Amino acid sequence: MPMKKYQPFKSELTKLGELANTPDLIDQLQAKETNQEITVYSDPDLGFLAVKPVTRANQLTLFVWVAISRLPNGIVTVLPMLEQMARETGCSAIEFETTRKGFKRVARNIGFVPIGQREIFTIYRKEV
Q1: What is the pLDDT of residue 104?
Q2: What's the rounded Cα separation, in Å, for the pair 85 and 56?
Q3: What is the pLDDT of residue 102?
Q4: Average pLDDT for the chain
Q5: CA gap 108, 52 in Å, rounded
Q6: Each residue of 28-51: pLDDT tens digit?
Q7: What residues have CB less than 8 Å from 54, skipping those under 6 apart?
Q8: Domain count, the chain
Q9: CB-based burial of residue 22 (10 Å sphere; 0-12 exposed, 13-18 middle, 19+ buried)?
Q10: What's the domain range around 111?
Q11: Residue 2 pLDDT greater than 80, yes or no
Q12: CATH of the domain at 58
């Protein structure tokens, strides 16, 4: 897997991996992309996104595993693309997890609701 896609985000991915207690995050991303378990979008000017369809409570859900934005209000900008991806892959919802406490207000403003906790992460979900 070419590192070119990951290189512009190496510092952010490394920091994110440390925060999530996953120091080998970049290696995991590359392996899962190679095995076609995730889809990765990368643009040095816009951001980095790793998503995968998963089944949650018997419902196909688009899980945003990693998202890094280089844009102001990045989640608002990328949300229409995520909603389209979810619909095109037969997913009925989008989920992501974060440790950022301030994200609660932002998530609510764009239709995501907190649905639970996993270790240190709050899980947010939006039906599409």
Answers
A1: 85
A2: 17
A3: 81
A4: 92
A5: 22
A6: 999 999 999 999 999 999 999 999
A7: 60, 61, 63, 95
A8: 1
A9: middle
A10: 3-127
A11: no
A12: 3.40.630.30
Q: What length does the chain have? A: 128
Number of neighbours of residue 117 by Cβ within 10 angstroms: 10
Tokens of 5: 């896609």
First to last CA, the chain: 32
SS (H, E, C) the chain: CCHHHCHHHHHHHHHHHHHCCCCCHHHHHHHHHHCCCCEEEEECCCEEEEEEEEEECCEEEEEEEEEEECCCCHHHHHHHHHHHHHHHCCCCEEEEEECCCCHHHHHHHCCCEEEEEECCEEEEEEEC
The pLDDT tens digits of the residues spanning 86-113 come to: 999 999 999 999 988 888 888 999 999 9
Q: Residue 15 pLDDT > 70, yes or no?
A: yes
